[in-house]
Amino acid sequence: MAPNIEWYEYTPLNRPNRPDMPSYSYRDYGYRVGFWRMLEVTDKHGIRCCVCLNGAVLDHCPEVRDAMVERN
Predict the structure, then answer these.
(1) How many CB atoms lie within 10 A of CB 43?
(2) Local structure of residue 4 (DSSP, 8 states)
(3) Domain range annotation of the chain
(4) Helices in 1-72 by DSSP H: which ranges?
(5) C or N: which end of the chain has fewer Cβ atoms within 10 Å?
(6) Which string of b and e fits 14-34 if b means at least 16 CB within 10 Å?
(7) Angle (CA) 32 22 15, round 5°
C-alpha cells in the first residue's frame, strides 16, 4: 500500500488573490481526516505502508510526519 499525501496551497503563487477553494478543500480533507482514517485501518490490520508525498507535507503537517515516523 502506498498512499499519496499532498500539501496544496490555499493561495497558489500564480493566483495569490484568488484561492482555489474546490481544489484546496478536496485535498485538505486528505491530511485532515483521510490520512487518520487510513492509519486506523493499517494499524488495526498490521499493514506496513510506504508513502508518496510532496515535501511540503513534512513542513505544513508535522503531526502527519510524526505519525509516519512513529510507524517506521
Answers:
(1) 11
(2) E
(3) 20-70
(4) 21-29, 35-45, 56-60, 62-70
(5) C
(6) eeeeeebeeeeeebeebbeee
(7) 105
